[in-house]
Amino acid sequence: MMLLLLLLVPFIGGLVCWHLQRLDPGQARSVALGTMIVVLALALALWLTGDYSQTLLPLAGDPPGHWVQQFSVPWIPRLGIRFSLGLDGLSLLLVTLTALLGVLSVGCSWREIHTNAGFFYMNLLWNVVGVMGVFLATDLFLFFLFWEVMLVPMFFLIALWGHDIPGGRPRLYAAIKFFIFTQSAGLVMLVAILALVFVHYAASGELTFSYADLLATPMSARTAFWLMLGFGLAFAVKLPLVPFHSWLPDAHSQAPTAGSVILAGILLKTAAFGLLRYLLPLFPAASAAFAPYAMALGVLGIIYGAVCAFGQNDTKRLVAYTSISHMGFIVLGVFAGTQIALQGVMMQILAHGISAAGLFILCGELQERLETRDLRKMGGLWARFTNLPQFGLFFILASLGLPGLGNFLGEFLILLGTFKAHPRLAMIGTVGLVLSAVYSLILMQRTFYGKPGTEAPIPDLDRREFAILTTLAAVMIWLGLYPRPFFAVSRAPMQALQSQYAPAATEPGEPATVREIP
Amino acid sequence: MFNLLFVVFLAPFLGFVVLSIGRNRFSESTAAAIGIGSLGIAALTTLALGIAFIAHPPAGGAFTQPLWQWLDVGGFAPRFALRLDGLSLSMLGVVTGVGFLIHIFAAWYMHEDDSFARFFAYMNLFVASMLFLVLGDNLLFLFFGWEGVGLCSYLLIGFWYKDPANGTAARKAFIVTRVGDALMAVGLFWLFREVGTLDIQQAVIQAQQHLAPGGTAITAITLLLLGGAVGKSAQLPLQTWLPDAMAGPTPVSALIHAATMVTAGVYLIARTHGLFELAPFSLEAVGVIGAVTLLLASCAALVQSDIKRILAYSTMSQIGYMFLALGSAAWGASIFHLMTHAFFKALLFMTAGSVILACHHEQDIFKMGGLRRRLPLEYACFLVGGLALSAFPLLTAGYYSKDEILWEAYAGGHLGLFLAGLLGAFLTPLYTFRLIFTVFHGEEKLQAHPRPGVTNWLPLVVLMVFSTFLGGLIHLPLAGVLPAATEHTVPTSQFEIGILSSSIALSGLAVACALFLGHRRFITWLAGSAPGRLLAAWWVQDWGFDWLYDKLLVQPFAWFARINFRDGIDLAILTIPTGLRALHGALSRTETGRIRWYAAGMAAGALVVVGMVFI
Questions:
Q1: pLDDT at A146
Q2: What is the ipTM of this complex?
Q3: Which of B144, B148, B174 sits opposite A437 (nearest CB)?
Q4: Nearest to A431 among B158, B163, B182 (CB)
Q5: What is the pLDDT confidence band of residue B456, given thresholds at 50, 70 and 90?
Q6: Could you tell me if A442 lies within 8 Å of chain B, comparing CB atoms?
Q7: Do A441 and B567 touch (CB under 8 A)?
Q8: Contact between chains at A404 and B148 (C-beta distance less than 8 A)
Q9: What SS3 state is found at B81?
Q10: Is the pLDDT of residue B354 over 50?
Q11: Residues of chain B with pLDDT > 90: what percent?
Q12: Is B212's Cβ below 8 Å from some Cβ in A?
């Protein structure tokens, strides 16, 4: 029932906001904030009420487990489709991240959005509904439905409240590009889902979209491979994995701040979640066979994203490319599939969600004050603010992977876990540590350091902005210094995942540890 | 008593927190009091710990204070735990003691700076990170401090951020050392794969049991760790950042780029000596890198004109000595030299800072001259520090440590390293006294205005005392942590080697006097000759490493980022809509409204279809 509330509350909140559009648009933001706080409270209540040592996916050889919480009612019985939701540690972490960033994204739109505020907050809240649905759905049809539902509100957020950069591409262009990229890849996934259901039907005579039932569908390696690619493509575009990434910089640079926060902080994570929840468990052997290529693309993304980031002149485009680089680590870790790497992926998901949100919020705040995002027009801002540059430094350092903050742990664990089986890829991935310093520090230099054009002070953070950034910074430090509560929650799902995937991933003839004796 | 260990790093860290929250609200004296006071607490605690440690050594020679479990993931369970043994105690003493004095000096140096509190916040954070590095009992924890000191180095080099050149120097320092850090990280991954832990003591034990001595794995691991060490310690081939790092305020150069952070590489290798002993090739590489850096940096120091750059190259070459010692398995001698070097190099840097301020931020030694009359204290400090740096026999601290290194290199049979060390011993007084004679002797070229104050002279005098033989008398409690030098059976005694190295140092001093005192006819002629000019131009650029890296790495990277500004992959994908639009354009052009074209089209289509059916 709690799970249903996670969807219903923002859904109804969105409806209310929409109606306030006609009655009293000024109230919409308060309603949206209240709604998201309730959602966050629900998510935190879930932390206290469940025993997260359980998950549906069993350890290899064990009988199936069960969700920590679930909700299921028949929906379209003739096709075996149910409205079923389930929660385990993996989805709990993502649900919490979504709720937290949802609150903050309402907070950071407080002053930015004036036109059609009611409709804006409806889109924001319904976007959250879509994302929550993706994290909670345990029926593949329902999953796909939510996967598509996420797109539409985001399309409107970019198209209606986005920014047009002078001399750049119009915001409608960015919105349509975002939509076509993700939609077309989503359709491929739909085909793959249907094919999987039919394969299962052919084998067992039972028509079902249930995740639990489809888990152990017997199929030929060839079929599995193509179905895996169908799912994989959708996730690769959403993640985004190079070379399917080019919608992201456009979408980010044109999106309003809240849109960027949701996009980088949560939407991208649905793809990472998809890899962990669907791709690896449904097709362990096929994923393992494809792993070297996926990991190579991940490493390529780490480096390509970092190099592109270095060359950008637009703060938000720069941060968008850094996201591509950070997401490359996630692909690397997922397909490495060791326990350490998978937990690293979990940490990277959370930490990047927080750090990217922080950076995008800062970009938005700078834009509000300077009316530009062009790095060529910035520089020397350090002395013109009191607090803003300190936060800038903090989140830039987080993105750079400074120990003590979450991103470091994520990347370190991913590389540590990957090195065991794929030392070469891990070594190339480590180049990302150097390149992240290159783009992070150039961002620092071009915004805050250097000679100021004028010494005139700029209005500093107000209390609302200060609170938002402090919250993010505190979570970041928590992730970096005392991450055990988070790892404890994701342990069971990750162990199960590893036990399903690892046998397939360990290639014959390659022992886990190689000791060379001359 | 030992339970107070955490205070040592907590005090400076809290100082950082308070200063960074309070920032501009604090007056200069409050900020200085917090910054210096917190370090004073750390130094006093260290002193108390040291006394307790020597009076009642803990069982097993080490005390471990676990703080909390960091993470526990898939068999990887590093914790935050502080480890106090002879080695970390020695480092603690250097970091807190010298750091405390430099903080006092910094309060004088940074007087009336706009961001006084920010400066002390960064300095305190640096000391806390450095203590983290030194006290960490596992390599991940050590890496934490390792990156932390790198960050503080970046922040402090670029402290005066309004000048873009400082920003460039700061970025260079961070990125070049980060290359080393990345190598070190790979080393940690590999080590973990082989031994399943990053706990230093455990890892060494496991490695001794499971890894074949001299095998590929252990050699690769130690070489990668060495990569981290050369980055941090500015050794070949990652040394290029250190001279540029002199862009930071001078107390920063004294603390970070002379006394503490740059010696972290030496500490790392000494700390993991158990691994290096298993890999003779890597150990040899350590020594060779040290020896080569020592000579290259000495030559570069001979031709610089910026007072701080000379000292920077000198630091590089002295760390080269420490690496040379490590490579000869003279672990204790290396740490001993680390300590004495911290004394006299911090002294030299702070004195240079006083001189620079007195000369209105002039750093070119050829624009100074004859300063000994107006700056007598600075002159005395430079003499004592310079003599210690040159290892003047018996009277200076530097002599005792350098003599130990040379002796052990010789006695251990490392003849090449020994000879390089001797050559370095000749070059050191040459560049040191070139600096001293140029700055303090000869005609007065500018009016120096000293700004005296207790916070200026007190730290100088204390370090001056420690730079004399009194510093050489300190006995570090390293037995039990680092293996003692083995008994050697060589025909020559340590005394004879001492005579040899002293006479070489003295002859270097004599040559320096002949060349740089008085009219300098010979050196002027030498510098003016064609080969002299060529060599000087080459050495001034640090043997062209910067040029090479710029051409090989920096420029291609920047070039690719520039041409790929529009993202080539995006452009490639955009050909799809462009192609579709072109197709659309072509097709819509056939829509002409002329019946005969349509009729002709239909007829042609029908023909094709009929043809396909029949053929």
A1: 93
A2: 0.91
A3: B174
A4: B182
A5: confident
A6: yes
A7: no
A8: yes
A9: strand
A10: yes
A11: 34
A12: yes
Strand partners, B63: B84
pLDDT, tens digit, 9 for 90 and up, residues B461-519: 898 898 888 888 888 888 778 887 666 667 778 888 888 888 988 998 888 888 888 77
Q: Taking 80 as the threshold, does the pLDDT of residue B142 lie above it?
A: yes
Q: Tell me what pLDDT residue A509 has.
A: 37
Please give, rounded to a whole number of angstroms, the shortest distance from the CA of B247 to a CA of chain A. 14
User: In sequence order, which residues have a C-beta less than 8 Å from that of residue A153 and are 6 or more positions away?
Assistant: A122, A123, A124, A126, A127, A130
A518 pLDDT band, cuts 50/70/90, is very low
Mean pLDDT to the nearest integer, A21-35 = 86
Nearest to A340 among B69, B73, B574 (CB): B73
3-state helix, strand, coil in chain A (%, to 5): 75, 5, 20
B75 touches chain A (CB under 8 A): yes
**Which pLDDT score is estimated for A512?**
40
The tens digit of pLDDT for each residue in A390-449 reads: 899 999 999 998 998 989 999 999 999 999 889 999 999 999 999 999 999 999 998 888
For residue A233, name the pLDDT band (cuts at 50, 70, 90). Answer: very high
**pLDDT tens digit sequence for A248-300:** 988 888 888 888 999 999 999 999 999 999 999 899 888 888 989 999 999 99
A244 token code pair = 């399917």
Amino acid at B264: A
The structure tokens listed for B537 are 């131009």
Is there a contact between A450 and B164 if contact means CB atoms under 8 Å apart? yes
Predicted pLDDT of residue A514: 37
Amino acid, single-letter form, for residue B301: A
Phi, psi of A288 (to 5 degrees): -65, -40
Tokens standing for residue B400: 């005792």
pLDDT at B487: 64
DSSP annotation string for B112-169: T-TTHHHHHHHHHHHHHHHHHHHHBSBHHHHHHHHHHHHHHHHHHHTSSTTSHHHHHH
Whether the CB-CB separation of B278 and B213 falls below 8 Å is answered with yes
Q: For residue B31, give how far its alpha carbon lies from the nearest alpha carbon of chain A (Å).
A: 17
State the Cα–Cα distance between residues A212 and A217, nearest whole angstrom.
10
For every residue of B254-315, DSSP letters joined together read: HIIIIISGGGHHHHHHHHTHHHHTT-HHHHHHHHHHHHHHHHHHHHHHHT--BHHHHHHHHH
Chain A nearest-CA distance from B399, in A, is 39
Question: What would the 3-class secondary structure string for A167-203 be?
Answer: CCCCHHHHHHHHHHHHHHHHHHHHHHHHHHHHHHHHH
* Binary contact (A450, B216; C-beta < 8 A): no
User: Mean pLDDT for chain A?
Assistant: 88
How far is residue A278's CA from residue A140's CA, in Å, rounded to a whole number?
9
- Between helix B454-467 and helix B397-411 the angle, nearest 10°, is 40
Q: What distance in Å separates the CA atoms of residue A419 and residue A416, rounded to the nearest whole number?
A: 5
A487 touches chain B (CB under 8 A): yes
Query: Coil, helix or strand for A73?
Result: strand
Nearest-CA distance from B252 to chain A in Å? Answer: 19
Residues 457-476 of B with CB under 8 A from A: none
The answer to whether B192 contacts chain A (CB < 8 Å) is yes
List CB contacts (< 8 A) between A420 and chain B: 193
**A507 has pLDDT over 50:** no
Cβ–Cβ of B20/A338 closer than 8 Å? no
Residues contacting B602, CB < 8 A, separation 6+:
none
3-state helix, strand, coil in chain B (%, to 5): 75, 5, 20
For residue A269, give the nearest of A93, A148, A428 by alpha carbon.
A93
B412, B487 in Cβ contact below 8 A? no
Inter-chain CB proximity B557 and A404 less than 8 Å: no
The residue whose two tokens read 């790392």 is B268
3-state secondary structure of A68: coil
Stated as kind and residue range, the H or E segment containing B1 is none
